Amino acid sequence: MKQKPDETLDSWVQQSLRQLPDTSPPGSTFDPERLWSQLRPELQATSSRRKVSIMWWATAACLASLVLGWLWSQQSAENHPTNVTRSMIRNVDTPSVSHQGKKPISEVLVEESAIADHTTSQVRLKTRHRSNVSIAVESPSSPPDESVNVVTQNSESPLPVEMPITIEKPTERNKPNVAVVAPKRRFRVMHENELRAEEETQPKLYRPDHFVRIGTGRNEEPISESYPSDLITHLTTKKTQ
Amino acid sequence: MSKQLVEQCQRGNSFAQKRLYDQYANRLFRVSLRYVRNEPEAEEVLMNGFLKAFRAIGDFTYRDDNGLEAWLRRIVVNEALQYLRANRHLPLFQADDDVEGQPDSVPLPDTNLDAERIYALIRELPPGYRTVFNLYVIEGYTHREIAEQLTISENTSKSQLNKARALLQNWLTHYGYEAETRRNA
């Protein structure tokens, strides 16, 4: 098949150009070495710029990871339930101090419930309560993880805010089968009237500073300093007798 | 040989870059000179092309020397087209009246007469004709690709190519080079 004249011209041009020598055109002032001397600094600048950019990215990544790690540790420290639980236990163990100077236990528990709003932290709280400290409301069927909610609800009720709380400390840790063991009593919540009634049944111990002296107070013998001063009542002697 | 050269260039070895440059600089200078008006512009295009090539050589997969040369040529051609666009040499298309006649300033080299003369005549084509002729005949682009590259229609590309062929044929005839005759001879 005969080629068209245009295609013939094209192929002829292509063949001719393939025969061109591997040099610059005749009469050209092109100097490859001169162009290379201009090109080389650009290439070195490119490679050094790339190294600098890699260094910057690496530094930025390290800083970002450090900041994120610090933020994460801060957040986990805030949400960590052991701090709240320990402070709560300290308050409960020393009730005279906690009821006078510090916040009542109900407020602490409300704060705890607010902090433990997040689901994960709630899960963490549950596990922590189960494993380390046993604090439970005195409700036989309530599981340990409902203790916080129950106490929180009580704190909102018109009942007295400061409720006597008893704690059972854990006797065994890390029991192998939790399901077999019955839920421990961690709290004992009782009404104030019941507490009074209980106290009334117990033998009363009178504190000596609440005694009052009855009588004229006349003393014929001087009381020595070594003589015990408490629990002594003087019989009054009437002059008429 | 070239494979090792390419691998060394991919690792940023400056000696390998120099060897690759030496191997292709003159050839690619001729390529860029076919698209732009003069040698300083061709040098600028070639320099930018080599810079891009050395930056992008990490993504290049070596198969053979032809593939390497084609890759480098493509980079230089794209760089030349970008240069033409940036310097507002595109669109480069003139009316028919302006391009008639014989070239006055075609240098006729003494050595390698046929190839060098063809090369010189192509460089003497008007810019629009030359660009389309280079892309279609020498680089092997289709009219659609040329239209996309130069932001012209396909018909414009075809008409420019026909005019470039006609003008080149005229010049060749003037210099005594009849394509058909030469082919048969």
Structure description:
- The complex is a heterodimer of chains A (241) and B (185).
- By secondary structure, chain A is an all-alpha fold.
- Chain A has a domain at 79-171 and 181-201.
- Chain A is 52% helix and 0% strand.
- Chain A has 8 helices and no strands.
- Chain A has helices at 5-18, 32-79, 81-93, 95-100, 105-115, 119-131, 147-156, 192-201.
- In chain A, helix 3 packs antiparallel against helix 5 (105-115).
- Mean pLDDT of chain A is 66; it is low at 95-102, 118-123 and 125-161.
- Chain B has 2 domains: 1-89, RNA polymerase sigma factor, region 2, helix turn helix motif (Rna Polymerase Sigma Factor, Chain: A); 92-185, Arc Repressor Mutant, subunit A, CATH 1.10.10.10.
- Chain B has 9 helices and no strands.
- Chain B has helices at residues 2-10, 14-33, 39-56, 65-86, 113-124, 127-138, 143-150, 154-174, 179-184.
- Residues 95-112 of chain B have low confidence and may be disordered.
- Chains A and B meet through helix 1 and helix 2 of A and helix 2, helix 3, helix 5, helix 8 and helix 9 of B.
- Chain A: Residues 137-151 have a biased composition (Low complexity).
- Chain A: Residues 11-27 have a biased composition (Polar residues).
- Chain A: Residues 1-33, 128-156, 217-241 are annotated as: Disordered.
- Chain A: Keywords: Membrane, Transmembrane, Transmembrane helix.
